[in-house]
Amino acid sequence: MNAITMPSSRAYNVVDHTYDVVVVGAGGSGLRATFGMGAAGLKTACITKVFPTRSHTVAAQGGVAASLGNMDPDEWRWHMYDTVKGSDWLGDQDAIEYMCREAVPAVYELEHYGVPFSRTEEGKIYQRPFGGHMTDYGAKPARRACAAADRTGHAILHTLYQQSLKHDVEFFIEYFALDLIMDQEGVCRGVMAWNLEDGTLHRFRAQIVVLATGGYGRAFLSCTSAHTCTGDGNGMVLRAGLPCQDMEFVQFHPTGIFPAGCLITEGARGEGGYLTNSQGERFMERYAPTAKDLASRDVVSRSMTIEIAEGRGCGPNKDHIMLHLEHLGADLLHERLPGISETSKVFAGVDVTKEPIPVLPTVHYNMGGVPTNVHTEVLRPTRDNPDAIVPGLMAVGEGACVSVHGANRLGCNSLLDIVVFGRAAANRAAELIRPGASQPSLPPKAGEASLDRFDRTRHAKGGTKVADLRLDMQRTMQMHAAVFRNSKTLTRGVAEMQRVWRGLDDMSVTDRSLVWNSDLVEALELQNLMGNAMTTMVGAEARSESRGAHAHDDYPERDDVNWMKHTLAWCGDDGSVSLDYRPVKMQTLTNEVSVFPPKKRVY
Question: What would the pLDDT profile of 124-180 be if each residue is shown by its tens digit?
Fold first, then answer.
C-alpha cells in the first residue's frame, strides 16, 4: 500500500494490484470478455460499480439476433444486409460481416453455456420477428430474434456470470473506476478505482484494460436506462485525451411506457402487437407499407412523433400513442411476454389482456462510443492513419463503437454485439499477451491526477446540488437533441450545454466521507455524463444531414457525398469540443459477401 499526498496535503492510501487484464464493467460484454480471458489462462480482474447481475444487460427483453433459420429459411448475408441498411450506411461493413457471421455460433455457444431460451414444439430455440430484420434482402419480416420469453438479457447475464465464476477470475464488486492510467508514450497501463464499501483507493496495473462500461442514457430526462448508465468509460477516455465516435446518434425506442419511460420490448410488436393513434388508425401502414409496425426503431419513433405533432396523439393532452396487445390473448401474453405484462400493470395500471398500453419514444441506446476495430482494440485515429490503435486498451459493448450499428441499431443486435465482441476481446488478448509476463514500472505519479480530481470533487463547496445540475443537463439534452432536430435548436443546445458545463465549477458535494458516499458517486457520474452530453450535442450540431437516428429538419435527406463518415469528438477539461472525421469501412472482411452499396432506406 502506498500513501499519495495530494497538493491539498490530504493523503490517500492507495492499494496496488497487478493483473494481465483488467475488465471495467460486468454487463454482458464485460463478463463474456472476463471469463474468456480467464479461460485463456490470463490473470484477470473485473471491476464493477454494481453487482454483476444488476448490470443493465439484465433489462434487455426481446432477443438476440442470429440467422439460425429455426422458424423460416434465413442466412447471415440477409442479416448483414439488414444491419447495413439499419445503420443507414454508417456502419463499418467489415465489422458487420464479422458480427452476423459469428452470430450463429455465438448463440449456440450461449445455449451450451446454459441460457434457457424459449423453445419451439420440436425443441429448437424459439425465434420471433423484430424491427428491421427481413428475409431475402428486404422481402418480408424475418423471425430471427432468439428469445427467452421477454427476459433474454436477464437469462444471458446470469448465465455469463455463472460461467465467470467457473474460471479463476477475481471480481472487485462495488468499485467505482475513476480514470485510465496512461504513460508518456500513450500506452494504457491500468486504471484507478475507489472501493465504495471501505473507502480505499486502488491502482490496477495491467497489460490490457478492457472498457465494458455501457451507455450514457442518463444524459437524457426520459430513458429506458438504469440510473447506473452514466457513460463512465467514455468519460475516462475523453479525460485521457482520446476521442469518442458518432456520439450524435442516440436511439429512441418507440415504446417506452408513458410517462415513466420503462421499456416495452419490440418483441411485443414482433408477436403481433400494433400501434394506433387517437382515431384508432394503424398509422404505421402509411409510413412503412411493407414492414409496418416492424420498421426499424428510428422510423417508428419519428412516425409516432409526427402523429402526435399533427394532433392525432391519444389521451386528454394528445401526447402519446397506444400499443395494442389485447388481441393476442392471455395465454400467449403469459407465455411470451410475461415481464412486460407485469411492467404495464405496475407503471401504467394497464391489464394488457384487456386494454392498450400508453407509449412514447424514449432514449434507449447509444450507437456512438469509444472507437474500436473489429478486434475491439481502441483507436486513436490520425489524418495519416485512421486506424491507429491505443496499445493496452480495448472497449466492448454499448460503450464501444466498432460501428456495427452505424446511425441506428436494429433491435436484438445489441445482445449479439456484446457476446460476439466480448468473445473477440478475449481472443485478441490471448493472442497479444503472455500470461504473467513482467510489466514495466508505472510512470512516476501514475494516478495522481485522478486522485486530485477525486479529492476536488469530494470537497466541492459550490452552491449547486449535483441533482439540480444533472436535471439541468438532462432537460437540455431532451429539449435540444431529441427525435427531431434542427439548426436552431442544436445551436441553442450547444450554448445551453456550455452553460450547464460551467455549472460544474459551482457544484456542491455535502458528504465528505469515503464509505458508501452516494453523493460523491453521483458527482463523479455527472462529470462522466457531461463529456458524453457535450460531444453528443456538438457532433449533432455539425452534422448537416439526416441519417438514422439523427433526423435534421433543415437537412431532411441523407448526404452520402459529404457525410458518409464517422464523427470523432475530443472534449477538453473546459468542455470545449473539437471534431474530426474518419471514413466508413466500405469493404468486407472476406470474399464470401460483397459490399452493399448505399441506396434509399425504405421499409
Answer: 999 999 999 999 999 999 999 999 999 999 999 999 999 999 998 999 999 999 999
pLDDT surpassing 90 at residue 9: no
What is the spatial distance between Cα 467 and Cα 203, in angstroms, rounded to a whole number?
Answer: 29
Residue 259: asked if its preceding bond is cis (omega within 30°), the reply is yes
For residues 315 and 118, give the distance between their C-alpha atoms in angstroms, rounded to a whole number.
36
**Taking Cα atoms as reference points, which of 516, 414, 519, 502 lies closest to residue 465?**
519
Q: Flag whether pLDDT at 506 surpasses 50.
A: yes
Residues 6+ apart with CB under 8 A from 592: none
Region of residue 577 (left: phi > 0; alpha: psi -120 to 50; beta: else): beta
CA dihedral 484, 489, 493, 495 (to 10 degrees): 160
Confidence of residue 551 (pLDDT cuts 50, 70, 90): very high
DSSP 409: P
Strand partners, 192: 179, 203
Cell numbers at residue 70, please? 429455426
Flag whether pLDDT at 50 surpasses 90.
Answer: yes
Distance of CA 570 to the CA centre of its chain: 19
CA distances from 155 to 146, 147, 417 (A): 12, 10, 16
494, containing H or E segment: helix 487-502
Question: What pTM, to 2 d.p., does this model score?
Answer: 0.94
- Residues annotated as catalytic are 297
Residue 420 host element (H or E): helix 413-432
Helical packing angle, 152-166 and 93-113, nearest 10°:
70
CA distance 425 to 427: 5
C-alpha 58/C-alpha 603 separation (Å) is: 30
SS3 372: strand
What pLDDT does residue 1 have? 63
Tell me the β-bridge partners of 379.
389
Burial tier of 141 (Cβ tally within 10 Å: 0-12, 13-18, 19+) = buried
What stretches of 476-596 adopt beta strand conformation (E)?
484-485, 507-508, 551-552, 565-571, 577-583
DSSP for 299-367? HHHHHHHHHHHTT--BTTTT-BEEEE-GGG-HHHHHHH-HHHHHHHHHHH---TTTSPEEEEEEEEEES
Where would I find the beta strands (DSSP E) of 386-483?
389-395, 400-401, 464-465
- Cα separation, 204 vs 453, in Å, equals 18
What pLDDT does 5 receive? Answer: 54
